[in-house]
Amino acid sequence: MHCSCLAEGIPAIASRNLWISGLAFPDWAYKAESSPGSRQIQLWHFILELLQKEEFRHVIAWQQGEYGEFVIKDPDEVARLWGRRKCKPQMNYDKLSRALRYYYNKRILHKTKGKRFTYKFNCSKLIVVNYPLWEVRAPPSLHLLLGAPALFRPALVPMGVQSELLHSMLFSHRAMAEQLAGQRTPQGPPEASGDKKGSGSVVHRECSGLGRAQGILSRGGEDPFD
DNA sequence: GTCGGAATAC
DNA sequence: GTATTCCGAC
Question: Residue ranges of region Disordered (predicted)?
């Protein structure tokens, strides 16, 4: 049986395809059958989730001026929230940080040395993790994608899934693009997508060369975005 | 505070 | 595989 902790903390986020502060976090990211390598929410998903919600800004927030970098302002609270989500009441920052350190080798995260409780997401790795099907068919650039998503319609991906994958991918980029854009809170659902081109250009500036990055990552080489 | 090994759980 | 738990080392 599932435990009931889920309802607390981050209500309903795993039950629907919600847009919070204009950023998507689709169902598939939480589902065993579609979330790669995991049966439930992964820590880095959870971190991103907190980062995109204003109500947790006093607990964890993007580091202004540093792309993809975030600061855990209240380690105990983040650990408590994570423990609640995973039904692990004994969770603490020491344990949580151990889990974060396992991301170093996976190149999902790395530590910002010299800054307490500060970590940095690896931009290109998130793309691969969030959008695994593109490993076989990488787009020329996110910029193009944002301008004309309909162009990318791999035959192997059903239409509905495709749109969700797109949203998911946009999520991780937009989350960080928001940071770049001065931590403004975007509004409106993605369908209204009036800001796609705007944030797309921001993303493109920081996160271009997607295909190249994926090629490098799939070979297990060095990451150009580190 | 941070790191990473080791054992363990799911 | 992805944590969780524990812990010694720095």
Answer: 179-226
Give the N- to C-terminal CA distance of chain A in Å, as an integer: 41
Sequence ranges of the domains in chain A: 40-128
Which chain B positions come under 7 Å from a protein C-beta?
1-6
- From the alpha carbon of A115, which nucleotide's C1' atom is closest? B1
pLDDT digits (tens, 9 = 90+) for A58-101: 999 999 988 899 999 999 999 999 999 999 999 999 999 999 99
Q: Provide the CA A114 to C1' C10 distance, Å, integer.
A: 15
Residue A144: exposed, middle, or buried by beta-carbon count in 10 A (0-12, 13-18, 19+)? middle
- Integer distance in angstroms from CA A35 to C1' C1? 12
CATH match for A40-128 among 3.60.40.10, 1.10.10.10, 1.10.760.10, 3.40.50.1820: 1.10.10.10
User: How confident is the model over A103-120, as a mean pLDDT?
Assistant: 95
Measure the CA–CA gap between A142 and A170, rounded to whole angstroms.
Answer: 9
Residue A213 has pLDDT above 90, yes or no: no
Mean pLDDT confidence for A124-151: 44
